[in-house]
Amino acid sequence: MPAGALVKGATHYAVLPRTTSPAGKGRAMHIIHYKVDGLDCAEEVAILRRDIGGLAGVLNLEFDVVNARMSVEYDPEAMDPANIVLAVARTGMQASAWEQRLTAGPRPFWERHG
Question: How many distinct structural domains can be found in the chain?
Fold first, then answer.
């Protein structure tokens, strides 16, 4: 699979590692995506940037406030993704695996009620 392909893991979805990262100096980096309950404004983004961005091994954070999504680029040699979930919990928010949302609309009436 090419770099950037979406892979479902046991606890999260991840993009296949890139071979290099500007911050990683040639090492393979990973990106994981989380749904963050409680992420709904810039104040929460600032809290998460401070607390998650300060963890050893976290290289980059990206946020989608509208969808409450946080993407974390990290060095797998220096960071265990479980520590990210624990750090989010310490902020009072809750991180869970990002589930890919269905793009299809609701099922027709006859499918739902057979």
Answer: 1
